[in-house]
What does this fold into?
Amino acid sequence: MTSELDQVLRDFLVESQENLERLDQEFIDLENDPENKELLASIFRTIHTIKGSAGFLRLANLEQVSHYAEDVLAKLRNQTLKLDAALTTTLLSAVDCIKSILVHLQRNGEEGEHNMQQVIDDLKAIIAKEDV
It folds into this structure.
């Protein structure tokens, strides 16, 4: 079973890295076209997939950061939030945090300790804001 789980983890890491590389460009494109629903849906799916896989693999830190990022993206999708520079910066910080966790996981086989509390607090603050 361990080797099967190791293979699932390796596959997850490869897929996540590929998705996150695409995500960087999608965020740039979204900044230029903040009303683009297809781009937003693609970004949401990427984060949703990472969150779901992290939950399955019991990667609590990764699941937590991606969960709150997904909640913010859901508000953008539902148009209860509007994308602005501060929101984009916070989402990119969350993506950087996700990347950091994945790199540590790939190198060390575990999530490691990450300074992610500020990112989570920033995401929670955005989620708690009143709808637009």
